[in-house]
Specification:
single chain, 103 residues, two-stranded parallel sheet, 2 strands, RNA-DNA hybrid ribonuclease activity, RNase H type-1 domain-containing protein, RNaseH-like_sf, RNaseH_domain
Length: 103
C-alpha cells in the first residue's frame, strides 16, 4: 500500500525481534518458512531508501493488534478510513503507555 501510494518515508514496526533481525541481516539467508516474505521486505527496504523496519515491544504495539482483531471480528479487509475505527483502538497505545507510567 505504501509503495502504491509512493510514500518516500515509511517506518514498519514489528514486535517479533527475530523477524526484524532477519530482515535487517541482508547478508544471511532467512531461516524461516516465510523466507519469501523476508526477501520481499529486504527488497522493498533496498528499493525505497527512506523506508525502515524497527522492532517495538508488543506492549507498544497494542493498536496494531486491536485493529487487526476489530477488522477480523467485523470482516473488514483492505483500506479502512480512520473515521471508521473506534476511538478506544486509536488511542490504546497512549492509554497503555500511561498505565505503565503509573506502575
Amino acid at each position: 500500500m505504501a509503495a502504491d501510494s509512493n510514500c518516500s518515508h515509511v517506518i514498519i514496526e514489528g514486535d517479533s525481534q527475530i523477524l526484524v533481525n532477519q530482515v535487517l541481516s541482508v547478508n544471511r539467508p532467512s531461516m524461516w518458512l516465510i523466507a519469501g516474505e523476508v526477501d520481499t521486505m529486504r527488497n522493498l527496504l533496498r528499493e525505497y531508501g527512506g523506508w525502515q523496519i524497527l522492532w517495538t515491544p508488543r506492549a507498544g504495539n497494542s493498536m496494531a493488534h486491536r485493529l487487526a482483531q476489530w477488522g477480523l471480528h467485523l470482516g473488514r479487509v483492505g483500506v479502512v478510513p480512520i473515521t471508521d475505527v473506534p476511538t478506544e483502538i486509536i488511542s490504546c497505545d497512549d492509554s497503555d503507555m500511561q498505565s505503565r507510567r503509573e506502575l
